[in-house]
Design brief:
265 residues; alpha/beta; TIM Barrel; eight-stranded parallel sheet; 8 strands; 14% strand; globular; binds (6S)-5,6,7,8-tetrahydrofolate
């Protein structure tokens, strides 16, 4: 299970303020907190800083590397920001978030995957845009996996993001993703799937409950990575218990350890 801590994102008010004030201490604190909570990667996203994305990415990466040895997941649609972040962070097995099957983005990001030998998150989007049906989603995923492996990218480095749409916008948006995960992972043994969890609950109340349960449901179909807040206790409780129930916890060791540490009190 690969947990990508999502908290260093300038769409969050406290991160935006820290960037504006050049408060590196706050960034370091959030990086450290995610590592201590069990994150395996730290996402870095400053996409809201449109004019200054490249410099902001460099500043964030510099600060994060001062307190953690976790590898980073550089999160931007902008190839220049990706390149700047990757250059600064060139240690460990880095991750790029993300490539799509849109021709210009594909052509700009694929060389970075090769140059920096990274893991790669691929969104199910092509030149026709976002998938309209679940068949579109599965077809785009198939094309991306075939093309990436054809380019010499190891299947173990590929993380397909099926793109989560809110259930409030379409009753079947949750169940379709579950079917897509199963289809994609069965069709391409060894490939990984990931997603951001907060879209599923957009515009509904009690969002954390919906996000947590959707994580558990997607895990049961094989999803093996999440872009999430690792410091959220309800989420961590559900994550570990679900791993135990799904045969991902030898001798229930993780569950017992978490219990002893008070996670279920
Ligand atoms: N897939 C991929 N990458 C992604 C996403 C995805 N990167 C960005 C995003 N989605 C995941 N990251 C975040 C980071 C922070 C928050 C949500 C998703 C967050 N949001 C607060 C909320 O929703 O309540 C609002 C901001 C605030 O706290 O002020 O914290 O899907 N590949």
């Amino acid at each position: 299970m690969l947990i990508i801590g999502e908290l260093i994102n300038t769409s969050r008010k406290l991160i935006r303020e820290a960037v504006e004030k050049k408060d590196g201490e706050y960034i370091k604190q959030v990086a450290k907190a995610q590592e201590e909570a069990g994150a395996t990667y730290i996402d870095v996203n400053c996409g809201t800083c449109i004019e200054t994305e490249v410099e902001t990415m460099e500043w964030l990466v510099d600060n994060i590397l001062q307190v953690t040895s976790l590898p980073l997941c550089i999160d931007s649609p902008n190839p220049l920001a990706l390149q700047a972040g990757l250059k600064k962070a060139a240690n460990g097995k880095l991750m790029i978030n993300s490539i799509t099957f849109e021709t210009p983005r594909w052509n700009a990001v694929l060389p970075l995957v090769k140059e920096f030998n990274t893991k790669i998150i691929a969104l199910c989007i092509d030149d026709g845009g976002m998938p309209k049906t679940n068949e579109d989603r599965i077809r785009i995923a198939d094309s991306i996996i075939t093309k990436l492996t054809g380019e010499g990218i190891n299947i173990d480095d590929i993380y397909i993001d099926p793109l989560i749409k809110p259930v409030s916008a379409g009753q079947k948006n949750g169940i379709e993703v579950l079917q897509a995960i199963q289809n994609i992972m069965e069709g391409h043994p060894g490939v990984h799937t990931t997603c951001g969890l907060s879209n599923i609950s957009y515009s509904l109340p009690a969002r954390k409950v919906l996000n947590t349960l959707f994580m558990v449901q997607t895990m049961a179909r094989g999803m093996d990575s999440y872009i999430m807040d690792p410091t959220n206790k309800e989420m961590r409780r559900a994550l570990i218990a679900s791993q135990t129930l799904l045969g991902q916890d030898r001798f229930s060791r993780k569950f017992i350890k978490a219990f002893r540490e008070g996670l279920y009190d």
